[in-house]
Give the backbone structure.
Amino acid sequence: MPNLTAATALSDSEEIRTADPAVSIQGLYKQYGNGPTVLNNINLEIAEDDFIGLIGPSGCGKSTLLKLLGGLESKTKGDIQFLTQQTSPRPKMGFVFQDANLMPWLTVIANVMLPLELNGASKQEAERKAIQLIEMVGLGHVKNHYPRQLSGGMRMRASIARALTIEPQLLLLDEPFGALDEMTRDDLNEELLKLKQLQAWVGVFVTHSVTEAVFLSSRVLVMSANPGEIYREIPIDLPFPRTSETRNLPEFQQKVVEVSQTLHELRNLA
Amino acid sequence: MNATVSRIFPPAIVGVSLIAIWYLVIYLFDIPIFQLPAPHDIIEAGSQEQSTLISGALQTTLACLIGFFTSLLGGVLISVLLAYSSWAYKGFYPYILLLKMMPVIVLAPIIILWFGQGLASITVITFLICFFPIVANTTMGLCSTDKNLVDVFRVYNSSARDEMLKLRIPYAMPYFLTGLKVAAALTPIGALYGDTVAGMGSGSDAGLGFVVVVFSSQLKIPALYAAAFTACFIGFLFVSLVNILHWRLLHKWHDSYAQSN
């Protein structure tokens, strides 16, 4: 039972944490058909206040891991347990995709209302919550616009609002800001952390940007490819709330160097 | 104001020039009226045959309307069915294609055998001509839904019904409307052709296609031209109808109208 020992090792290192685990992943394994192993023996405990950043070379299975968590892919072996809720097998989940993936025929507000409507909420309730979130992400002035009338950054904001309307317990983000310029990306990073303070969700996100990973995460998981494994966990113990000034702290820079070096290490191993 | 002028001016210039060339050609080459009547001959013949042309046009429009709307309903229904079940798609699509391959010209005698001379056969022929572009385009639209958007619906536990109504159908709308545009342009062709093979010549029952046959056998050449323009007008009505629908449904969000906003 090598899985079990790995899992215990991880949870031992969690002892400093006070929060309960929200998600527990044990011996997770994923393979497409008879192809190569995409994910190999992933063991991970995610705590209730965690914001986990997944980073690694392409092909390391980080997006697949996220999709498995979101129920968009099915696992080959292993177990994912959600411990935040008692009743339903899946917690309320928000998913922010790589592209904004807004319905082009719906206005911003109708897009943000969509997850609630799909889950049977009344139109009034959906609208009330949607307006709240649209204001929160600063799109109040364009709530009746169509996606094609918005800039890339605004679309991403709408997409984040959509993921948050259902008041998720778990928020999954798949390279959400990859297509944006750096300024917009930094702004949205800060806003995302503010939103996390307002709505306590557990976050897991995939990114290619080291600074983004360090800025947002409570823990950065560096993954290695072929097969996809968790290579190293780097806790980011910078205090929250983090602001744009956080990026200037020497501790922040140190962590960025640490994550970058780990990625270099991986490249040299390959 | 300037925009309106710049929109109307070029086609007006071209139209006037074409008519001028028309007269010029007739004058220069001394072309007899039975080969190429002048515009005023056509207008004169049109007003002489006014009642025949109008009743023919009404009859043809009726056949067009029935054929077009039944093919619209039938086409959408079949497409949704094909998109809902991959079994149905695999099972039926080859035969729909086969039906499409079979030229209507060959089918016409069989249709007349089944439905008799008259409106019924004409609308069936119109239906067959319009049906395929609607089914092909709508099915394509319903089956090519952006995988990323499907993922959004899956993440939020959408029911299959919601996925069809709120995702696949709106996504397929531009495809459907493209099919409808093609169908609208084909509708008068179907009805006119139906008329020539299955039309009946008794008074107000005669469609425009039948009127054309009669005029040409009587060598009423300017009247034939007038009939052609009348048919043109019916086609124009149908295409405009679909264009208006296209604009109403898509102009707010679809990229094909991006310039106008």
DSSP finds ten helices and no strands in chain B. Chain B touches chain A at residues 146, 148-149, 151-159, 162, 166-167, 170-171, 173, 252-255, 258, 261 (CB under 8 Å). The mean pLDDT of chain B is 90.
